[in-house]
Write a structure and sequence with these properties.
Length: 213
């Protein structure tokens, strides 16, 4: 009996312990890194699913901002005649559309994290933050493609004699991209947690994003 009682009192070894986060900003970076393969798989899934079963495929990453920029140039540049402080209208509106598209898509897609992945969350354990992080990274790939398009327009206007002069503020661009992704991620996760109970927030968010644009 003595040996049996001693063996029963030995501490149990657990493979994984699931517990609530106790401190603010207590992000499990080590755990997220251990699930990096899953995150890269989700990034690939999100990126491929953007224009799956379309004829032009990834070309929409380029066509969509160009068409939107043309519309903005015609309405605000030609009809409303709004000044852009000497910058070419195409560059001015393309820069704004590219940055806003990254932020708005990161926000709206992240806000659907818990409603769109409820079945997965209930079956398999992994850090929940991996899903919204994969959305941010997949949108970052799209942003990189559209940024190359923007650089092509900059080179074109530069060679054509336009007054396009990059300055030291360009060095702040990586910080701005991190801020846009971080704000979209944080606000999206807050809204996603509320959307599980109040589904009306989904429609209000769509309206708010369109209004802010």
């Amino acid at each position: 009996m003595g040996k049996k009682s001693l063996s029963s009192e030995e501490p149990q070894q657990w493979t994984m312990e699931i517990k609530p986060v106790r401190r603010a900003l207590d992000i499990p970076f080590a755990e997220i890194w251990s699930y990096r393969d899953l995150m890269f798989l989700l990034v690939r899934r999100d990126f491929v699913a953007m224009y799956k079963q379309t004829i032009l495929g990834p070309l929409w990453f380029v066509i969509q901002p160009i068409l939107t920029t043309i519309v903005f140039t015609l309405i605000f540049g030609k009809i409303a005649n709004i000044s852009t402080d000497g910058l070419p209208h195409m560059l001015f509106y393309l820069a704004g559309i590219t940055c806003w598209a990254y932020f708005s898509e990161s926000l709206t897609k992240t806000s659907e994290t818990f409603t769109q992945n409820a079945n997965i969350f209930g079956k398999v354990y992994f850090p929940r933050v991996i899903v919204p992080l994969s959305i941010i990274i997949s949108n970052l790939i799209k942003l990189a493609i559209q940024f190359l398009l923007f650089l092509a327009f900059v080179v074109y206007y530069w060679n054509s004699g336009s007054s396009v002069q990059p300055n030291m503020a360009v060095l702040m661009l990586p910080i701005l991209i991190i801020l846009m992704g971080g704000i979209g991620l944080s606000l999206g996760m807050i809204i996603s947690s509320l959307t599980t109970k109040y589904r009306d927030l989904k429609f209000l968010l769509t309206f708010a994003v369109q209004l802010l644009m």
